[in-house]
Design brief:
single chain; 21 helices
Length: about 400
């Protein structure tokens, strides 16, 4: 297990609701956790809320991989739940996220909770040849290009890619050439190109890092492309990634994605890059995000900088920096004299948030609508999507 995960995972079971929530968010989409971390998260779910300010834990476990033990625990919960109970959808989604071989091995246990057609599409993949898998992938790519966005189709395409990689059906040169061809044509990136970006991440193909980072300069591209580029860069996660991303980190409106990359790569190089960017920018929103990502790095060097920034005034509509700084100090064992003051402020913010009604009536999120992780949540809560209904 990664050393950073070892530091953070025990706080999943913290009796402090703000520390618990922040700890789980710190590991989101870092690609550092394993099935054992998921099991720790389930313990937190089973324990239930520790105070009136507790957040639901289960939605935050969506990014974690399942091992066999985890999958069977999910099946056990589904056997106890009714389809109309709120957690049913979360647990079924966890099944859909599970590894292909794991689903095949437990097919008899999971089949009643997954659509028969969908499970059949998954089960057949290992028996297909490389050529057949590419034909399957082409079918999903064409469907996504020609129809309204479908998360289920998009995820199945990714599953096919993972199967191709298991069979050594994707070569590094194919990824390099695929990105180069599109870069030279300077055309809009379709799903074929987005899947090539995903392949680069699954292969940890460091040679394409400069090409990937350059995509952030085209602000007219889709959120889905930027999301996939960011995920791929985090998966690669090398010093080169940090160096290249830092160069464009404050460029235009894509800084939501570039700073997110640096925040999710849990290395000293990434922390130092964020510290430099903090000093370079006067943009309040960018500086607020950098401050939060430094706290997610458990950076002690950032504490005095962020404390001063809070006093100057930050983008409070984006997030609560007092909470970020409070948790950073707690998890680093720093008995800061302002801890009680920050804690009281966080409780006031949470209490007010629970009393307020959303500006717009909550609307169900349709499966065909793509919402960026840093966009306002469509439910009308006023929070970022990744902090709310995601």
């Amino acid at each position: 297990m990664c050393g950073f995960v070892e530091r953070v995972e025990p706080y999943f079971l913290s009796v402090d609701p703000f520390v618990q929530r922040y700890a789980i968010e710190m590991l989101e989409d870092t690609y550092l956790v394993d099935g054992n971390t998921f099991l720790t998260g389930l313990k937190a779910v089973d324990r239930g809320p520790v105070s009136e300010f507790s957040s639901p834990v289960l939605p935050y476990l969506m990014y974690m991989p399942l091992n066999e033990d985890g999958l069977m625990k999910v099946v056990h919960r589904l056997n106890r739940l009714g389809k109309k109970e709120g957690d049913w959808l979360f647990y079924t989604q966890l099944l859909l996220n599970a590894d292909t071989n794991l689903l095949i091995a437990q097919k008899s246990d999971v089949k009643r909770f997954m659509g028969e057609t969908q499970l059949a599409e998954i089960v057949k993949l290992p028996s297909l040849t490389i050529e057949e898998l590419y034909r399957e992938l082409a079918g999903f790519t064409n469907y996504l290009d020609d129809h309204e966005y479908s998360q289920a189709h998009y995820d199945q395409g990714k599953r096919i890619i993972r199967e191709l990689i298991k069979k050594d059906g994707v070569e590094s040169w194919e990824v390099r050439n695929g990105l180069k061809e599109n870069d030279e044509e300077n055309e809009f990136y379709g799903f074929h190109d987005i899947y090539i970006v995903y392949m680069a991440g699954e292969l940890r193909e460091e040679s394409v890092v400069p090409q990937l980072v350059s995509l952030f300069k085209d602000e007219d591209e889709s959120d889905l492309l930027f999301e996939e580029v960011a995920n791929t860069l985090v998966k690669i996660g090398t010093e080169q990634v940090v160096h290249e991303v830092e160069k464009v980190a404050l460029y235009g409106n894509t800084y939501f994605y570039t700073l997110d990359v640096l925040g999710r790569i849990k290395t000293k190089e990434a922390e130092n890059a964020l510290l430099r960017l903090f000093d370079q920018t006067d943009d309040i929103t960018a500086k607020t995000l950098i401050s939060d990502y430094l706290c997610q790095q458990l950076s002690t060097g950032a504490i005095p900088k962020i404390e001063a920034f809070i006093e100057e005034g930050y983008d409070a509509g984006m997030l609560c920096l007092e909470e970020s700084l409070y948790v950073n100090c707690i998890m680093n064992g720093i008995d800061h004299p302002k801890l009680p003051q920050w804690r009281s402020f966080i409780e006031d913010v949470e209490d007010q948030s629970m009393k307020e009604q959303p500006l717009f009536p909550p609307q169900p999120i349709q499966s065909g609508n793509k919402v960026g992780r840093n966009d306002p949540c469509p439910c009308g809560s006023g929070k970022k999507y990744k902090k709310c209904c995601l």
